[in-house]
Write a structure and sequence with these properties.
It is built from four helices and seven strands, in the order αβααβββββαβ. It has 164 residues and is α+β, with helices and mostly antiparallel strands. The longest helix is centred in the middle third of the chain and has 19 residues.
Length: 164
């Protein structure tokens, strides 16, 4: 029997955690912390994680945080979605095949129609990659002011900032 793909396993884990949080009363998390190991499928010919694969890991981190904060349910109930507008990635250290790494994701601030995420990949204690992702909140195919998220995010996360 073939092994399930890495993303399929990730989504199964996300669904399991979502169900557990629902049963436990949805405990809130200020950040997402996910642990991975760089596999051959993640890496390019040079033996380190391919730059396109980093974006998939970052997407997994943002999705996990949305679920952990209860924003996923709120989005579904109110008919809005989140779309990546821009992402700036700074590669500091390569993550080689077989290495374990940790992805941390948090919401830094809300700016008008945008929620700004900060995402960091660590090799042990060493910062390997960092990204700032601007996600636009969309409803009925139009960008909407993300300020309505402030009570959900800022009320629970003391260092998040709402920008004017």
């Amino acid at each position: 029997m073939a092994k399930p793909s890495l993303m399929l396993r990730y989504h199964a884990r996300l669904a399991r955690n979502y169900l557990r949080w629902r049963l436990e009363g949805k405990p809130h998390a200020e950040k997402s912390v996910l642990h991975f190991r760089a596999s051959a499928l993640d890496c390019d010919w040079f033996g380190h994680i391919n730059n396109a694969r980093y974006l998939e890991f970052f997407d997994a981190g943002r999705t996990d945080l949305f679920v952990r904060m209860g924003l996923f349910e709120h989005a579904n109930a109110h008919g809005w979605t989140a779309v990546v507008g821009t992402m700036n990635v700074r590669y500091r250290r390569e993550v080689r095949m077989g290495k374990r790494f940790t992805l941390e994701t948090s919401i830094d601030r809300i700016e008008g129609k945008t929620v700004v995420f900060v995402q960091k990949i660590f090799l042990g204690e060493t910062l390997a990659t960092e990204a700032e992702c601007h996600v636009v909140v969309v409803k009925n195919r139009k960008a909407v002011d993300a300020g309505f998220l402030a009570p959900l995010v800022l009320g629970k996360k003391g260092n998040a900032k709402a920008a004017a």
